[in-house]
Design goal:
Blueprint (H helix, E strand, L loop, with lengths): L2 H10 L12 H6 L2 E5 L3 E7 L13 H17 L9 E8 L8 E11 L3 E10 L4 E10 L8
Antiparallel strand pairs: 1-2, 2-4, 3-6, 4-5, 5-6
């Protein structure tokens, strides 16, 4: 089985469950549930906890960015590449607020996978299917080997 197929199957085994085997400590803290995964896209659901909110009780913009980045990382992981592609930018637009106790779904999709640059897009929706945020990120190839 190819590395891509192994990693994809590994994440697919968590569909309907919290992604508790994330190699990311931040990913563990976010505690996302895998909704769907395929070769080019990932969808995770997150519950908004008090410690994720800003002083007025809305989901903190930085946490939204973290959710997006975590999902993009999982999307990248599923590609089965040998070397790491760190993010070189993350552009996020925010549209509506989310409060404590609500859920959000983050959907990512690999748009372009080049030899040196990769582009991944994301959308964040609330439980009413309203667009909360959208993002785009470019990742650059490195020589850092992925250890798993």
């Amino acid at each position: 089985m190819s590395m891509e197929n192994q990693r994809l199957k590994f994440v697919q085994d968590f569909i309907g469950k919290q992604f508790s085997s994330s190699p990311s400590p931040y990913g563990h803290w976010l505690s996302g549930k895998v909704v769907s995964v395929d070769e080019r896209s990932v969808e995770l659901e997150f519950s908004v906890r008090k410690e994720m909110t800003n002083p007025v009780g809305m989901l903190h913009g930085g946490v939204i960015c973290g959710m997006i980045d975590e999902c993009m990382g999982i999307n990248f992981f599923c590609l089965g590449l040998e070397c790491f592609y760190p993010s070189i930018n993350l552009n996020v637009d925010f549209f509506t607020a989310v409060k404590e106790g609500e859920k959000v779904v983050v959907r990512t999709q690999v748009i372009k996978q080049g030899k040196s640059i990769m582009n991944i897009k994301a959308e964040v929706f609330n439980s009413k299917q309203r667009l909360v945020a959208q993002a785009s990120s470019n990742l650059a190839a490195s020589d850092i080997k992925i250890p798993f």
